[in-house]
Automatic annotation (TrEMBL), chain A:
Swiss-Prot/TrEMBL keywords: Nucleus, Repeat, Ribosome biogenesis, rRNA processing, WD repeat
Annotated BOP1 N-terminal domain residues: 31-289
Compartments, as annotated in UniProt: Nucleus, Nucleolus; Nucleus, Nucleoplasm
Gene that this sequence comes from: BOP1
Protein name from the UniProt record: Ribosome biogenesis protein BOP1
Subunit structure: Component of the PeBoW complex, composed of BOP1, PES1 and WDR12. The complex is held together by BOP1, which interacts with PES1 via its N-terminal domain and with WDR12 via a high-affinity interaction between the seven-bladed beta-propeller domains of the 2 proteins. The NOP7 complex associates with the 66S pre-ribosome. The PeBoW complex associates with DDX27, BOP1 interacts directly with DDX27.
GO biological process: maturation of 5.8S rRNA from tricistronic rRNA transcript (SSU-rRNA, 5.8S rRNA, LSU-rRNA); maturation of LSU-rRNA from tricistronic rRNA transcript (SSU-rRNA, 5.8S rRNA, LSU-rRNA)
Statement: the UniProt record of this protein carries the keyword ATP-binding: no
SMART domains, per the entry: BOP1NT (SM01035), WD40 (SM00320)
Keyword Repeat among UniProt keywords: yes
Any one GO molecular-function label of the UniProt entry: ribonucleoprotein complex binding
Provenance organism: Oncorhynchus tshawytscha (Chinook salmon)
Family stated for the protein in its record: Belongs to the WD repeat BOP1/ERB1 family.
InterPro entries: BOP1/Erb1 (IPR028598), BOP1_N_dom (IPR012953), WD40/YVTN_repeat-like_dom_sf (IPR015943), WD40_repeat_CS (IPR019775), WD40_repeat_dom_sf (IPR036322), WD40_rpt (IPR001680)
């Protein structure tokens, strides 16, 4: 390590003592454990004083020694030094911030060397340069350059800055054809909305908000408010205050102008009357039922199904009160009431006028009744037809059991009982009156539809596969086709070829009912989602027309046999009769015009009209409802 | 399977649009500069038709600019100026930091500036385009001209705005193109027809502004920068069309008149000149000295036939009306009291040919005193005035506004001092059939048609002797009004169809005859026919139809509500009147 000798402090020691510690500038603690405390000039050890003072000695010294205050401990020699008077004086002066030297005068008078008085003699005796007497060539060159530039017009005097903008005729040479690229897609900003009466400082009283309206206005969010300000009334112009949101509104307009995305919107400006299709007047499409003329009362529960006899003289109805009633159409009299062992789901009168048979289904049974109404000959011939059956030689296993009714039941009119394996929902006759189909909706088996032949008492299951829950079935009126409606599709099968010919997409959620036009080429489907789909079988498998005229689920649809009419009954309690003209000309599409909304049925338990059917010859329509009545509209 | 696989979002609308951030990056501008550029160049975001497609499948809310717009911005010379300015600011800051004051001064001297002339020309290729878009510029300049010079924006901008608006007002006065005025709670709306364009602007009331903190004044300042440039050029051109000197100068005659009176009041001529101009009391100097009155610009007569002739006649009639309106206050001498808004009233009155003056202490430019005997109308907005002259009307300022909107001098009785003023209606509302028309408007329309309206309600409160009669009259009025209301409602309900309900109504006395029944039956039949036809509507059309009908119903509902409110109000006020009368007796 480098030892720097402490010259200053040692100088004093040197005067009084001859020992000079040459240990250097090191902490003296290093010598704590040694007997010596450094070395003198000769390299001899300087030993510490024999006995160190302890606290008590120190104290005694302090008390007794009058020079204690001027004694200083020297660490390098570990000895005490008594300061002389001069030294004490020096310390005092330094403490006061005075110079150490007694003789130094800090306030000596200053001598002004450079004064404001011009002296006659130079400070230095150096003579001036020659160049200070002759003009500068470099400057001359610079000036001449500038002069030349000004002469040549290269340098112009600095123009004063114009503070106000200069305006001129900007559109002096305007070219209206100057279409810029961006102007093709340019959407000019709409102008500000012009103020209405409510913005006036003195509006008519009706434009002022009432107390409640004002409260509502205040509670609304700024975006929801219809008016962005509160209309106010001031008695005179003097009383009108400043509008507090003026700058805001201006600012918002600015934001709209540069931030708001613009889009060109085509506003449809149509007369709503033009949207309504021009249809022939219902008056010109008569006849159709217009008024309710008869109400058939007697049932005690909702009437599920009705059917008219082919002559049009009788009407049969099946109800949830376990009865089937026969009515005379013209008088509204109940001719017969038959108790059956369950809620009647469906009734169907045999369409063959030579046969007097009614199919009734309830629970797992389909009952063929002979109501013994009308022509005696027909009644007896029907009975003969039933009894003339001869069982075949070999007995085939059948899906249903055919049983002939006898005795009391026979007197009541029961003729044949077909017991099904499952609950039956619907029965339909073929147009000839010999075949009969029954529907047993079941999602999990292929045994849903059965076709029975009455004359041979034979039953067959036409389908091997389950294609979905069957809703209803129907026979084609002329050709050997069979229509099966599942939830969303109507499948048309050819019974002779035993194949699927068509699959109609109804676009409905759940088909409820179906009817075939007597011509056989058109079909209507009612659905629980308030739609009625008209299919033209020649046209497409998609609906030709979709009507949404009912407010609630459709329950029944029907075509008239002779007149171009069809009707639909729905849960909203109304029957809508439409004119549905089918033309022989294949190029002309059917004309569909709603002609009458028939109301009368009360809505009970959210059910309105359950079934509709037309009179076979007259333009009359029957409807059965959940309010236990059957109504005839003529 | 040949060919390259087509990638999604690489063609079509996805490539036509660009998001804001991408646009900013493409232009290499800061957001503030980008905003400024968009404002100046009039670039705005577009709403794409198929947002999801443009947004590359994402539904995040983004604003889109047309890519072509952004490309168009790339070539803008002003972008370079922006960059220069950025550099300038940097240099200046550095010089300040180093305390190099000469450098600061030098930099200040060479501060880069830019002009917007080419942008204006580009945005508005024709003068009419520019005029069509001046509404916002006017409103903005009028707002800025009312700002105090306290540092919300540059003082130069404020003075420039003030100068331009004064020029504009002088132009409107000289060309007599003011059409409609409206005192709203926000300010005063003016509508002028300049070169066939309807221009509407809003002027705030003369109060100190309470500057909101949530408004970005830089955006407004940028807009104002653009607007002042546009506005100046338009003013220049408009002055040129009228053969006026631009910048406007007072007529030498008027100038000398004004000088004689007020020379000693104002320190500097340059300062007082704008004020003299803004006083609007003197006409302007023309480039070519013409006769005082311009010759009537007659429509040229063309031999025409049939429809053209009709059109022509209609146009001629319109023009005549217009001229009549322009001379609405001609020959009248107005004096404005201290408390009325001087500038707006002087502006309006001068626009329609009146002479206006005001107190000397109010503003420079008043040409005559209150004591002038020829004054016809004095506009006062205080409940009463001490010294009244006999040969003049003391009216409230609303009379001027209402008369302008009615295009005729309305009877002054309704506007006398201390009288409850009739409601002030907006002239901008054009009622279609089915809308609610306030009864005041109906009255006014009758007055305009020239029908002498019998003013039953205008009777004084003190004539009690014909109280009985009065009551009868009131009842009659009630009846007629109710009938009117009913008729109006009927008219309205004919328009709507869905709500038609056929109910077995009561047999009314005037319907007992078979004729009435037949009519009703026919009506019912028609209604049913319509209902049935509506059933056959296609889904799309039905939706549209329902929407239209819903809107119609809503308007009728609102109109009915207003009518009912009015009726209730009138009933209560009548009851109060009666009570008062009863008390008096």
């Amino acid at each position: 390590p480098l030892f720097i000798p402490l010259a200053q402090s040692d100088m004093k020691d040197y005067k009084h003592l001859d020992i000079r510690n040459t240990v250097g500038n090191v902490p003296m603690e290093w010598y704590q454990d040694y007997p010596h405390i450094g070395y003198n000039l000769d390299g001899k050890k300087i030993f510490k004083p024999i006995r160190n003072k302890d606290e008590l000695d120190e104290f005694l010294d302090k008390m007794e020694n009058p020079d204690y205050w001027r004694t200083v401990h020297d660490k390098t020699t570990a000895s005490d030094i008594r300061l002389t008077d001069e030294q004490v004086d020096l310390v005092h002066r330094l403490q006061k911030g005075q110079f150490g030297d007694v003789n130094f005068n800090e306030y000596e008078p200053s001598v002004d060397f450079f004064t404001n008085e011009v002296m006659i003699h130079p400070v230095t005796n150096r003579p001036q340069d020659k160049r200070s007497f002759i003009p500068s060539l470099i400057e001359k060159e610079k000036v001449s350059k500038l002069v030349h530039a000004i002469k040549m017009g290269w340098i112009k005097p600095r123009k004063p800055k114009e503070t106000t903008p200069q305006y001129y005729d900007l559109w002096a040479k305007e070219d209206p054809n100057a279409i810029l690229g961006r102007h093709k897609m340019h959407v000019p900003a709409p102008k500000m909305r012009l103020p209405g009466h409510e913005e006036s400082y003195n509006p008519p009283p009706e434009y002022l908000l009432t107390e409640e309206e004002r409260l509502v206005w205040e509670q609304q969010d700024a975006e929801d408010r219809k008016l962005p300000f509160l209309p106010q009334k001031h008695s005179c112009l003097r009383a009108v205050p400043a509008f507090s949101r003026f700058i805001h509104e201006r600012f918002e307009r600015c934001l709209d102008l540069y931030l708001c995305p613009r889009q060109r919107k085509m506003r449809v400006n149509v007369n709503p009357e033009d949207l309504i299709p021009k249809l022939p007047k219902p008056k010109d499409l008569q006849p159709f039922p217009t008024t309710m003329s008869l109400v058939y009362r007697g049932h005690t529960s909702l009437v599920r199904s009705i059917s008219a006899s082919p002559t049009g003289q009788w009407l049969v109805s099946g109800s949830d009160d376990f009865t089937v009633r026969f009515w005379e159409v013209n008088t509204g009299r109940c001719m017969k009431t038959l108790e059956v062992g369950g809620a009647v789901k469906s009734v169907a009168w045999n369409p063959n006028p030579a046969v007097c048979l009614v199919a009734v289904c309830f629970e797992r049974t389909v009952l063929l009744l002979n109501p013994s109404l009308g022509d005696r000959l027909v009644v007896s011939s029907t009975d003969q037809l039933i009894t003339a059956y001869e069982p075949p030689e070999e007995d085939k296993e059948q899906a249903v059991t055919w049983a002939l009714s006898e005795g009391l039941e026979h007197n009541m009119g029961h003729r044949l009982t077909l017991t099904h394996p499952k609950a039956v929902k619907q029965v339909v006759w073929h147009g000839k009156g010999d075949y009969l189909s029954s529907v047993m909706p079941d999602n999990s088996s292929n045994l849903q539809v059965l076709i029975h032949q009455v004359s041979k008492r034979r039953t067959q299951n036409p389908f091997r596969k389950n294609k979905g829950l069957v809703q209803c079935v129907s026979f084609h009126p002329l050709r050997p086709y069979f229509f099966v409606a599942t939830q969303r599709y109507v499948r048309v099968y050819n019974l002779i070829k035993q194949e699927l010919t068509k699959k109609l997409m109804t676009n409905c959620k759940w088909i409820s009912s179906m009817a075939i036009h007597p011509g056989g080429d058109n079909l209507i489907c009612g659905s629980y989602d308030c739609r009625l789909a008209w299919f033209d079988l020649d046209l497409s498998t998609k609906p030709y027309k979709m009507l949404r005229h009912h407010k609630k689920a459709l329950r029944g649809v029907a075509y008239h046999r002779n007149y171009p009419l069809f009707a639909s009954g729905a849960d909203d309690g109304s029957v809508i009769v439409c004119h549905g003209m089918v033309y022989n000309d294949l190029l002309q599409n059917p004309l569909i015009v709603p002609v009458k909304v028939l109301k009368g049925h009360q809505i009970t338990h959210d059910l309105g009209v359950l079934d509709v059917t037309f009179h076979p010859t007259q333009p009359w329509v029957f409807s059965s409802g959940a309010d236990t009545t059957i109504r005839l509209f003529t | 399977m040949g060919g390259l696989q087509k990638k999604k979002y690489e063609r079509g609308s996805a490539t036509n649009y660009i998001t804001r951030n991408k646009a900013r990056k493409k232009l290499q501008l800061s957001l503030a500069d980008f905003r400024r550029l968009c404002i100046l160049k009039g670039i705005y975001p577009h709403e794409p038709k198929h947002k999801k497609k443009v947004n590359k499948g994402s539904t995040a809310p983004r604003t889109f600019y047309l890519l072509k717009d952004i490309r168009f911005l790339l070539h803008e010379p002003i972008v370079r100026k922006f960059r220069e300015y950025k550099v300038f600011v940097r240099k200046l800051r550095k010089a300040y930091g180093k305390a190099e004051w000469t450098a600061v001064e030098r930099l200040r001297d060479n501060k880069p500036g830019y002009k917007l002339d080419h942008i204006i020309k580009e945005r508005y290729p024709t003068f009419i385009d520019a005029l069509r878009d001046i509404d916002d510029a006017l409103s903005m300049c009028f707002l800025f001209s009312t700002f105090a010079r306290t540092g919300k924006c540059h003082v130069q901008t404020i003075t420039l705005c003030r100068r331009l608006t004064v020029e504009w007002m002088n132009y409107v006065v000289t060309s007599r193109s003011l059409r409609k005025v409206f005192i709203s709670i926000k300010g005063i709306y003016y509508q002028a027809e300049v070169l066939g364009q309807l221009i509407t602007w809003l002027v705030p009331y003369q109060f100190a502004h309470d500057h909101p903190t949530d408004v970005d004044y830089r955006v407004m300042a940028t807009f104002t920068e653009m607007y002042t440039t546009l506005f100046g050029f338009i003013n220049f051109r408009l002055y040129q069309t009228l053969n006026l000197v631009y910048p406007p100068k007072l007529d030498s005659k008027a100038e000398s008149e004004l000088k004689a009176e007020h020379e000693e009041d104002y320190a500097m001529d340059s300062e007082s000149y704008l004020e003299k101009l803004s006083a609007l009391s003197a006409s302007l100097a023309r480039v070519v000295a013409t006769a005082e009155e311009e010759e009537e610009n007659q429509l040229d007569q063309f031999p025409a036939d049939g429809e053209d002739l009709e059109n022509m006649e209609a146009r001629e009639k319109e023009q005549k009306e217009q001229e009549a309106q322009n001379r609405l206050f001609e020959g009248l001498k107005f004096f404005l009291n201290r408390e009325v808004p001087r500038e707006s009233l002087a502006f309006i009155l001068r626009c329609f040919g009146a002479e206006v003056s005001w107190d000397k202490s109010l503003c420079i430019g008043g040409t005559y005193n209150v004591t002038d005997e020829t004054i016809t109308h004095q506009i006062v907005d205080r409940p009463d005035i001490d010294k009244q002259y006999i040969n003049r009307y003391y009216i409230q300022p609303q009379w001027v506004f209402d008369s302008v909107n009615a295009k005729m001098r309305l009877p002054v009785e309704d506007y006398f001092l201390g009288v409850t003023l009739p409601p002030h209606l907006s002239p901008f509302v054009e009622e279609k059939d089915g809308d609610y028309v306030p009864p005041e408007k109906l009255k006014l329309m009758a007055l305009q048609r020239g029908e002498k309206h019998v003013q039953e309600e205008e009777e004084d409160d003190d004539d009690d002797d014909d109280d009985e009669e009065y009551n009868d009259e009131v009842d009659d009025e009630d009846l007629t009004e109710e009938k009117n209301l009913k008729k109006m409602e009927d008219q309205r309900s004919q328009g709507k169809t869905l709500a038609v309900k056929v109910t077995p109504g009561k047999v009314k006395p005037w319907e007992t005859g078979s004729v009435g029944n037949k009519v009703r039956l026919e009506k019912e039949e028609k209604a049913e026919e319509k209902r049935l036809a509506i059933m056959m509507m296609k889904k799309k059309e039905k939706y549209l139809y329902d929407k239209i009908m819903f809107g119609k119903k809503r308007t009728t509902r609102e109109a009915n509500k207003l009518a009912a409110k009015r009726k209730a109000h009138e009933d209560t006020s009548k009851a109060e009147k009666k009570q008062k009368k009863a008390k008096k007796q």
